Known about the structure:
There is one protein chain. By secondary structure, the chain is an all-alpha fold. It folds into 2 domains: about 5-220, Cytochrome Bc1 Complex, Chain D, domain 2 (Orthogonal Bundle), CATH 1.10.760; about 225-385, Cytochrome Bc1 Complex, Chain D, domain 2 (Orthogonal Bundle). It is about 35% helix and about 0% strand. The protein contains 17 helices and no strands. The radius of gyration is 23 Å and the shape is globular.
Amino acid sequence: MATLPSKVFSILAIFAVLLTFNACETESDFFENTTFTDYYNTLLQAPPNLPATPYNYANINLPAYYNVPPIQDQNNTPNNNQITDAGATLGRVLFYDKNMSFNNTIACASCHKQEDGFSDTDIFSTGFLGGLTGRNSMGLANASFYQNGRFFWDERAETLEEQVLMPIQDHVEMGMDLDTLVLKLNIPYYDPLFEDAFGDTTITTERISLALSQFIRSMVSYNAKFDEGMQAIGQAPFETTPFPNFTESENLGKQLYFSNQTRCASCHGAVSFAAPGPRNNGLDEVSVDNGVGAITGVPQSMGAFKVNSLRNIELTPPYMHDGRFATLEEVVEHYNSGVQNHPNLSPILRNPPNSPNPGQPRRLNLTQEEKTALVDFLKTLTDDVFTQDVKYSNPFEE
């Protein structure tokens, strides 16, 4: 066996002591069956395969329609954590490194897979000891374009910088103590990464948070069939102008999506396809999960949830916070005929005062052709360039 570098040996010795004193009963049971050599072998894995010149994360050439004030005003990037190529590169390695979890089995990417639009196609994700998360994993595309800047379905994290550290510490997801993580990440391949990103090799919780946030905010999707259509029509109003690259059904779906009949764009509007804040979308008449309300305690927030971007929505089933809908067809049918009369139902989903049955949940009365068209349109938001882009891929794969 290769000689263990003294720095790594010291860190592992400290790590083992910390684990002995801090492990919960389940974790202790696990460590009875885990040897020191397991950690040695994991920490001496091949370093990440990174290019000599970092990929471009900081100055992505976005289409003009992403750079107009209404879209840029949605951007939640703070002034003290602007994206840099070096910072996002470090974030990429951290995102895919299974050493971030208690037993070296789970990375951020385990629940946010690139090929699945950085989501998880299981209803609930599997944690480091086999337990399941309480909600479905949300896709990360266009996470920077959520105006209030809060994260998780219940928006309990005030910023992305706060959010990225929470799954690491969660007793189901990754099971790590942050102080222990700082010691554990004293792995040789991190020295140049931290130095490039922050000026020296010091590893801190704050730096881990900043780098992970930079990588996630760099995940902007703008190469879907929808974007090709946007480029093709130039300055014409995209909501009402047929796209020449769309099928007849896709154009019908686009027209319906942006119409007053469906009002889909009222929650998932503009080219980022996200809302500025949480909504109650009538999943239940009486909330089973109180979402944002459980965090805020505000009665009007009970049953409201973060509204994620629809970019790459075709790739991110199942849908809703609890994964109750397996297909986009089921999602469309919910808004067509299944919205429930929750007290906090979004006004957009209620009949207006001057209509029949005022205040009741809206029924869209879509034909089968129209429902199919809406699904076809949603699939034009799939961005294969984004889901195959090497700069967002696993750097530990050969």
